[in-house]
């Protein structure tokens, strides 16, 4: 059975795969032959591999109020979109021209406004446009470039011609997803990529980086470029982190930046660091609460003033969103002739702005054949298909158009082309509506176009629009053939060399990032410690040994790991603690906070470590869904601990010893020191002439085998104190934590002597005692417990000093008590 047996090509649409004769088009032949050779079973396995990789990599597209959850996995079809190089050359030429035209239009709108004076654009369109930022009028942008990154959504009509459906000019999304699509699909068809000479994508992003560095205002420093994100809850946050990591630039939020004396600075661990260029993913009006939108918590107060003074490059320039309006589409042919002296090579879909009387009446007369859209692209209302309306709905829409004409545009309905997707249900190719988002980047040599793009496909077979927010998916885009590729712009092409900024230590590490790294390690260690305490209790219950349960229960309650209220048997208490998300010391509480911080640090976490965080999240969610036995609980704990140990090992073996690593190390050692201090203080409580918590202490420290091998006796206070308190070689000994913590703090940027001194005193007091010195009399044990209490308090003091010295530059979101 052929993969094409169920694939049908309608006569009223262009089919990307099949030609008029019903056979695959020439540029699809090699791909289809390859897919046929593989067969349905291999293709299904390949699709499953792609889906697993998406989950492991944490490729998400966040949809607000989505019942399936905020972090929706990215939908990527196995079959790429294929375009021949000759056809792509025409598309790329049209995109370059269009980007140049829109940039020139922005230059005029925020400058002399000759287009309005010469009636090439209606004055009412500009002055009534909420996206036109009046505070930005007159700002001179570096290099006269307003659009550094431009995207156009294009679609193919039934006659095979490409049309522009919309322009993306504020902070075009999807380029990072396109690159990830290539990595995922390329891994499934590596030989075919080489055989078809599919053009690579990576040089496009390097060119964008180098161009920003070239135009950035300069002082005596190497230009610092940052990527400004609204935060981890934004729908395309994965892409923000992905691009920042790939381009080697810091990912920052508005709270990480400040404006001083008309320049923008990054709040780093070493103090303020000048920012020269901002690649923004925050919408125009949210960028500056001082001059644009006062209720914005995403922007940087004073950013408009810094741009006005020419002290920072903002890409794209503030106010560029005005071009996204569908109202401008109908005016572009005349603007192209006027500004460029050329015909518009890649035309827009026929569009009428209802703010003009003649256009309004045309729209009303042809309402049944048009799609009504908001004139301003950021409006929440979706498209309205005139032909779907009944008489009452039609009359109501016409009344709205007449009452608020400038808010509407009418656009011809384009019967979008269809292309093949892999049908999971029938293991064959199925047709879906397709569209393509194409990207261009400004360089001193002119605009360059990414040789590919983000192909989007409708989620349902009978869909009329393509939107990823409402269930659509994506494809990799292959440009095949040997046509001459565009030479990417490099910093070496510029008259002034642009050096890529590197983070050797703390130079560009934002204080918020350092704080998040600190608490990431603390929550990981808290989760580890709480899981170990519950595992200790579970092992005792499975062995029917209740001798140490009262001491363990009291310690667990004091540490916030076990519920304070009596929930029944020890078994019920342990299982309740393992499921409870409200206990501040419980594993679930700490894992939730760990994963929250991990999401906010996507740009700092390597893909290998991110897969472990994803595994932890799946483990926690799966455990919360059902009821489990004690043995199930023990297996769950072991799996979580294995993941946490892997993360700790990855940090030790693969992370560069920079400030980010140092703050992780400080957080881990500080948390472990405080846990050991609390647990040992609580479990070393005597009952008569016995100390009942010794076996639990050894188990908590994962030192059962070491104790048996070294001492070959039942747990006794002297040997336990030696192993768990003062053994320099035991990474879970109390003294080891103190000495390691003091060493890491001493190597943090700047000086923090107030934090090291109390640790050194504790270390000296511990190191000066022999194991037997702690157990001569009950008062000796009391003195030990008092020292442990002092150590716990010293940990709080160290934490406060760290926050005062490094983390109070921003309103923190990552701290906890």
TrEMBL record:
It comes from the Bacteria. Residues 80-458 form the Circularly permuted ATP-grasp type domain. Pfam families: Alpha-E, CP_ATPgrasp_2. InterPro entries: ATP-dep_Glu-Cys_Ligase-2, CP_ATPgrasp_2, DUF403. SUPFAM superfamilies: Glutathione synthetase ATP-binding domain-like. Residues 509-807 form the DUF403 domain. This is Circularly permuted type 2 ATP-grasp protein. It comes from Viridibacterium curvum.
């Amino acid at each position: 059975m052929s993969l094409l047996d169920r694939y049908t090509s309608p006569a009223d649409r262009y089919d990307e795969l099949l030609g008029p004769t019903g056979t695959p088009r020439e540029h699809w032949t090699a791909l289809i032959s390859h897919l046929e050779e593989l067969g349905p079973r291999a293709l299904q396995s390949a699709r499953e591999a792609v889906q697993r990789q998406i989950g492991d990599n944490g490729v998400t597209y966040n949809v607000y109020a989505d019942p399936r959850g905020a972090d929706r996995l990215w939908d990527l079809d196995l079959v790429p979109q294929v375009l021949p190089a000759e056809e792509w050359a025409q598309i790329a030429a049209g995109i370059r021209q269009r980007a140049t035209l829109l940039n020139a239009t922005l230059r005029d709108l925020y400058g002399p406004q000759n287009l309005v004076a010469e009636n090439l654009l209606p004055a009412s369109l500009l002055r009534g446009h909420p996206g036109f930022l009046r505070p930005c009028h007159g700002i001179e942008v570096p290099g006269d470039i307003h659009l550094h990154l431009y995207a156009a959504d294009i679609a193919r009509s039934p006659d095979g011609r490409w049309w522009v459906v919309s322009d993306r000019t504020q902070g075009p999304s999807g380029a990072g997803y396109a690159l990830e699509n290539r990595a995922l699909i390329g891994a499934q068809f590596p030989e075919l990529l080489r055989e078809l000479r599919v053009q690579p994508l990576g040089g496009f992003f390097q060119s964008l980086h180098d161009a920003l560095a070239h135009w950035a205002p300069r002082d005596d420093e190497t230009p610092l470029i940052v990527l400004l994100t609204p935060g981890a809850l934004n729908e395309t946050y994965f892409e923000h982190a992905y691009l920042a990591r790939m381009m080697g630039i810091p990912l920052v939020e508005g709270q990480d930046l400040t404006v001083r004396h008309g320049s923008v600075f990054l709040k780093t661990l070493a103090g303020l660091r000048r920012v020269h260029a901002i690649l923004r993913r925050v919408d125009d009006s949210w960028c500056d609460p001082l001059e644009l939108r006062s209720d914005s918590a995403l922007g940087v107060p004073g950013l408009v003033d810094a741009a006005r003074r020419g002290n920072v490059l903002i890409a794209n320039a503030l106010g560029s969103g005005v071009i996204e309006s569908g109202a401008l589409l109908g005016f572009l042919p005349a603007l192209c002739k006027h500004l460029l002296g050329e015909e518009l090579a890649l035309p827009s879909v026929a569009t009428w702005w209802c703010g003009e009387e003649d256009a309004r009446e045309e729209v009303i007369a042809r309402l049944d054949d048009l799609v009504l859209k908001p004139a301003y692209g950021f409006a929440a209302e979706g498209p309205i298909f005139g032909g779907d309306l009944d008489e009452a709905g039609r009359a109501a829409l016409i009344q709205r158009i007449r009452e608020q004409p400038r808010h509407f545009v009418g656009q011809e309905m384009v019967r979008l082309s269809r292309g093949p997707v892999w049908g999971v249900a029938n293991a064959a190719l199925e047709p879906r509506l397709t569209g393509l988002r194409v990207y261009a980047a400004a360089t001193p040599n002119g605009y360059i176009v990414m040789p590919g793009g983000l192909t989007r496909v409708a989620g349902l077979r009978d869909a009329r629009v393509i939107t990823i927010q409402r269930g659509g998916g994506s494809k990799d885009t292959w440009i095949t053939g040997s046509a001459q590729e565009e030479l990417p712009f490099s910093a070496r092409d510029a008259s002034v060399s642009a050096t890529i900024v590197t983070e050797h230590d703390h130079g560009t590490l934002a204080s918020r990032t350092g704080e998040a790294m600190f608490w990431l390690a603390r929550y990981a260690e808290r989760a580890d410690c709480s899981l170990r305490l519950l595992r200790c209790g579970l092992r005792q219950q499975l062995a029917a040994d209740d001798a140490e349960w009262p001491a363990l229960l009291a310690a667990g309650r004091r540490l916030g790991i076990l519920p304070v209220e009596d929930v029944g048997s020890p078994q019920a208490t342990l299982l309740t603690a393992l499921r409870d998300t409200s206990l501040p010391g419980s594993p679930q509480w700490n894992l939730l906070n760990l994963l929250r911080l991990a999401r906010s640090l996507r740009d700092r976490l390597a893909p290998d470590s991110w897969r472990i965080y994803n595994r932890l999240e799946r483990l926690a969610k799966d455990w919360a869904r059902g009821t489990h036995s004690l043995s199930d609980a023990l297996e769950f704990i072991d799996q979580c601990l294995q993941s946490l140990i892997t993360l700790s090992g990855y940090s030790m073996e693969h992370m560069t010893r920079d400030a980010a690593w140092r703050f992780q190390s400080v957080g881990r050692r500080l948390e472990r020191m405080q846990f050991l201090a609390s647990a040992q203080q609580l479990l070393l409580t005597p009952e008569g002439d016995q100390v009942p918590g010794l076996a639990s202490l050894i188990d908590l420290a994962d030192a059962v085998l070491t104790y048996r091998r070294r001492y070959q006796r039942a747990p006794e206070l002297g040997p336990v104190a030696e192993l768990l308190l003062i053994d320099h070689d035991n990474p879970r000994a109390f003294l080891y934590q103190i000495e390691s913590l003091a060493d890491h703090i001493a190597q943090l940027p700047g000086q923090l002597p107030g934090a090291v001194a109390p640790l050194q005193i504790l270390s000296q007091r511990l190191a000066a005692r022999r194991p037997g010195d702690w157990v001569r009399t009950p008062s000796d044990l009391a003195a030990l417990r008092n020292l442990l209490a002092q150590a716990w308090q010293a940990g709080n003091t160290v934490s406060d000093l760290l926050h005062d010295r490094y983390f109070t530059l921003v309103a923190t979101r990552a701290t906890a008590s």
